[in-house]
């Protein structure tokens, strides 16, 4: 079967086998919010912000493949509520203070809060105690602002091939680490390429020296590099 | 029977405070206390953050004077980067600080304090505010509001927004001045100058020396930064302290070694600490900062109109005025001086140069940033690790320096007006007026959050609360 036909939000659409619901929706101008998804990287369905409804079930659009005669809803009241809850938990889990953040005005998490109309956080804040690691000569990681999307881990492994970034621990103590949990400045595998900086959706991984609201990310960088390699 | 009077909340000030007046058996004032009742703890939660965030982070100490904290913080960071910032960056930072002087001083004068002396200390409290001022003198009030708006606009055009502009950064500023904005400043300055001339004339004609004694007069030392030649300074310079006669106590002191001469004491009844001059101890080492402090320590403003006005001011008082009311007078003088300084900056073509930021990494592990905020000398002192993470932050804010003096002012006014337990609303307003003259920014000073305004409590000899008077 060459083509698949499916319905998203009442629109009859076609897709190629293997395409995800997110790809099909995006191509047809249907906006689905995402956070852990980054063009050029493998999707992992980690953040659950792209959830959509398929026959009464909630599934992540970034990792669910389109199937023939599938009926998909992307914007019901229930979906909006769940997305907002997910977002609230992301905010509560870290220490996200936009007012003095280097990425204020250029942050995907902040943009999502506006888009999903998250006016307040209704779950208790965890106030984790984190340490800013500024040991790398050019970059720093502020885990207060990390949402564990894993874009740095995938950019470093899949595109740069350095595998400096990885996850450590599980649940609420999970965090991203460099090499075997050494300070970034001591991570011998790091090539200082900066792909993690540009891939990070918030002010967590950033350029040293950026002041309040000065950090702007080139989040298309990874997709550009991947596309050029494919053309080689 | 001894009594205590509590004024809570103190109104038309920036921050939350109350005043306690202790009465003796005869109903006369035995003692007073000015309490700042909120705690914020900024010094503690800056620890662990990066140096580069500090200007934006400490700006959030205050919505009235964020510019002051941004500049002090950026200067402390410059010291840690060990850079000399580009000349244009310094000129632009000066420009913003002068904008801050104009807006802050105009706010203090027109919105907060002028209602007392232009409408009357005993006038109807419901109208003794900027609304009443508009009704009584619409033309001057409108001009005063426009003057403040100009100061705000300077900040906004330079920094991108009026409150918390994240523009001064370690090493300079993050955007140069545009030709359009330069043009706008040049075109709008003359109106400001006319307004301050008119206000000064009205002020001088309205008050003789006796009326200026309404808020008391006492001896203290004065502290401020001065430029070479003893000229008035607002951004750089060296620390000078003079005594009540204007004789120099300390001169040319390196600001980065402020702790050699200034230490802070604490009292259990207020969150605001008491900085004092170390050699004279606590509380003997009382000094005052802010407009009166700067004017008393300097020889001259260094600009013609302000110097002429300064000469006129000094002809009416001793070399160093100790009158609390003269904070208002010197505030107006400083607005005039700020406008003249702006004219000089705008006439210098270097102000349009696009090179405004020096880049560097961590080269020193400790840095002090000092400048003159509208309310007085502001000190930010940071220690960082080799990666630029803050290990310790100390802020000595302008209002803190005046804490001993504000307590003295409250006591003197209370003793002057309260006799035999006779207390009227007008008397309470004079006591508050003594605080207002210093234009304290209490949210800054305790680095406090919450509702603004004061309360006066009256407590008897047994410590029982007799009466509470509040103003909303």
Short description:
The complex is a heterodimer of chains A (about 230) and B (about 475). By secondary structure, chain A is α+β, with helices and mostly antiparallel strands.
* Chains forming the largest contact: A-B, 19 and 20 residues
Quickly name the level 1 CATH class of the largest domain in chain A. Alpha Beta
Give the proportion of residues in helices of chain B. 40-55%
Supply the helix-strand structural class of chain A. alpha+beta
Rounded to the nearest angstrom, the radius of gyration of chain A is 18 Å
Q: What structural class results from the helix and strand content of chain B?
A: alpha+beta
Largest sheet of chain A: 5 strands, mixed
CATH architecture grouping of the largest domain in chain A: 2-Layer Sandwich
Number of domains of chain B: 3
CATH architecture of the largest domain in chain B: Orthogonal Bundle
Q: Regions of chain B with pLDDT < 50 over 5+ consecutive residues?
A: 446-452
The oligomeric state of the chains shown is heterodimer
Content of β-strand of chain B? 15-25%
Describe the fold and architecture.
The complex is a heterodimer of chains A (232) and B (472). In chain A, 41% of the residues are buried. Chain A has two domains: 72 residues, Ubiquitin-like (UB roll) (Roll); 147 residues, Alpha-Beta Plaits (2-Layer Sandwich). Chain A is globular. The model of chain A has no long low-confidence stretch (mean pLDDT 96). In chain A, a hairpin with a 2-residue loop joins strand 1 and strand 2. Chain A has six helices and ten strands, in the order ββαβββααββαββαβα. Chain B is globular, with a radius of gyration of 22 Å. Chain B has three domains: 105 residues, no CATH class; 165 residues, Cytochrome-c3 Hydrogenase, chain B (Orthogonal Bundle); 106 residues, no CATH class. With 472 residues, chain B is of the alpha+beta class. At the A-B interface, loops of A face helix 2 of B.
